[in-house]
Every structure is written in structure tokens, then in C-alpha cells.
Amino acid sequence: FDSRFYAQLGGSTNYGDPFFNRDNYARNTEILQPQWAKDADGKYMLRFDGKGNNLIIPLYATPARGFTYELSLKPESIAPQMLLRSYSKTAGAVMVVLDAGKLKVRFVRHDMQNINFTTPKLLETGKWQHLTIAFDMGKFKIRVDNGKIYEFTCVGKPCKMTQMVFGGVGKGIGIKYFKGCLRALKVYPYSIL
Questions:
Q1: What is the Cα–Cα distance from 67 to 62, expressed in whole angstroms?
Q2: Rounded to two decimals, what is the model's pTM?
Q3: Could you tell me which of 47, 45, 71, 55 has the C-alpha nearest to residue 134?
Q4: What is the Cα–Cα distance from 187 to 68, expressed in whole angstroms?
Q5: Which burial class, exposed, middle or buried, applies to 89 when counting CB atoms under 10 A from its CB (0-12, 13-18, 19+)?
Q6: Could you give the CA distance from residue 161 to residue 63 in angstroms, rounded to a whole number?
Q7: What percent of the chain is helix, strand and coil (3-state, nearest 5)?
Q8: Span 80-101, mean pLDDT?
Q9: In the predicted model, what is the mean pLDDT of residues 67-76?
């Protein structure tokens, strides 16, 4: 992974200013973008404070068929927190919640029925891990580092024409924002698992 990446952030309904410069925001304004920092190895990362930071994956970077999200992350809280969510409540909507190291995935089928899946504890707090989440329009597959692949059957297409959000937009359903660090994020328009 290249530890330097760029994206646009904002209030989850529109794109905000790039997060390069805090000066883009008024002094007393809530900061919705994560902060650039360097880890102990000197690599760049984004630090999410768990209070409202989120990263919007732009509309046209979100695959409308199968997909893979690869993330290098270090969670800092065991509280239920949002990792990924399509900004939609329609058929094909996807939500991935981190809860005490377990990943809880919800997918909304075209008949509006939720398909839910929970992995065993996979992620540890305070440790860098490589998370891969893939969907091939028939199965969701999840793997941490080079470990076992956990999968569940889920037939359907993901939401079209909606952005994905990393780290937030769970406030209205009682799920906290992600607290931790993100060093890399890659999106593929197909399943690599």
C-alpha cells in the first residue's frame, strides 16, 4: 500500500474541502475530516477521533457491481463503530460495523429483506491490520491479514449511484463513528478474494 492517499471529505451528504489544511474551516467549526499524522514508523495515516470524522468515497469511485475494499487500519475502541456504509437505505445498501473486534455486515436485498452476518473476533485494538471486504454479487468475503476467509451467501447487486462512507454515518441508528487510524484504502470494481 502507498501510505499517502487523497480523497474528499464532508458532511456525508455532499463533498467537503480536501483535508490538507485546517485553515479551510472556521475556528469553532466541528471538524468532520480526519487529521493527517505520522505513525511510529514515520508513515502517513489519517487519525479518526470517533466524534464525527468520516471519509466519503466519491460517487463514481464506488463500484455498482462486485467490489473489494482493502484497508490498513488500527482500531482504538471496542465500542460498536461504523467502518463502511453505502449512503442509502434502498436495495443493495451495505453496512459494515466493527463491534469488539467482530465485523457485522448488513446487506439489503432487492426484496428489502436484510441479510446479516457476524464474524468471530478478527480485529484487535491498538494494532495495524489489513482488512479485505469483497463482494462478487453472490457472496461477501472478509479476511484480516492473510488469515481465514469468512464468507456468507448474499445474492444481489449493491446500490448504484451512491457514495460509500468510511468511519461514520451511524449516528441516527446508535452506532458511533470509527475511532482509530487508517493508513491505506483501495477500492476495486471486482472481488479479489
A1: 8
A2: 0.80
A3: 71
A4: 6
A5: exposed
A6: 9
A7: 5, 40, 55
A8: 84
A9: 93
